[in-house]
């Protein structure tokens, strides 16, 4: 089977025979690894007003979404089959609201000292945080849209620092 290549690098989750496997990180150095990710949920203005008022009958929507996002980082390896379980040292989740666009932006920062990165954990936190908002508000707005989920920045490890371009 031919190896799949992108940007002159091989996909690392496949062995020589093309079979999926967990990447061996045993010989990698332990470094400070950081990843930042973000995403957006769009909703009706009335839904955002309900979230901002704090009068949602299910409670503090943003607070619960923050806890869900943090919990998701700790369960990433349980959900993504070839992801390594990691001892995280920091997880920060921030929500920013924009009443003009009727959106909530979720931004995450995940850190560890380890042999593999935390990009998937940062992305998982964004997805689960936004899905939690959707779950809590779906009774009043089933048309909400989760969009623009992306890695913003990562640092540490052999590949060093990567920052998303303005186009991504």
UniProtKB/TrEMBL annotation:
It catalyses: (8S)-3',8-cyclo-7,8-dihydroguanosine 5'-triphosphate = cyclic pyranopterin phosphate + diphosphate. Keywords: Lyase, Molybdenum cofactor biosynthesis. The active site is at 135. Homohexamer; trimer of dimers. Substrate binds at residues 82-84, 120-121. InterPro entries: MoaC, MoaC_bact/euk, MoaC_sf, MoCo_biosynth_MoaA/MoaC, Mopterin_CF_biosynth-C_dom. The gene is moaC. Catalyzes the conversion of (8S)-3',8-cyclo-7,8-dihydroguanosine 5'-triphosphate to cyclic pyranopterin monophosphate (cPMP). This is Cyclic pyranopterin monophosphate synthase. Residues 22-157 form the Molybdopterin cofactor biosynthesis C (MoaC) domain. It is an enzyme of class 4 (lyase). Pathway: Cofactor biosynthesis; molybdopterin biosynthesis. Its EC number is 4.6.1.17. It comes from Undibacterium squillarum.
């Amino acid at each position: 089977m031919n190896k799949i290549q992108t940007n002159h690098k091989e996909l690392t989750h496949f062995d020589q025979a093309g079979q999926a496997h967990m990447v061996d990180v045993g010989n990698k150095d332990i470094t400070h690894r950081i990843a930042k990710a973000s995403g957006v949920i769009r909703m009706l203005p009335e839904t955002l007003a309900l979230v901002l008022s704090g009068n949602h009958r299910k409670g503090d929507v943003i607070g619960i979404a923050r806890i869900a996002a943090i919990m998701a980082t700790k369960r990433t390896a349980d959900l993504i089959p070839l992801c390594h379980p990691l001892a995280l040292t920091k997880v920060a989740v921030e929500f920013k609201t924009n009443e003009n666009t009727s959106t909530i932006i979720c931004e995450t920062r995940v850190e560890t000292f380890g042999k593999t990165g935390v990009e998937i954990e940062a992305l998982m936190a964004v997805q689960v945080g936004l899905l939690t908002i959707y779950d809590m508000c779906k009774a009043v707005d089933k048309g909400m849209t989760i969009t623009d989920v992306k890695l913003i920045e990562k640092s540490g490890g052999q590949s060093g620092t990567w920052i998303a371009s303005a186009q991504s």
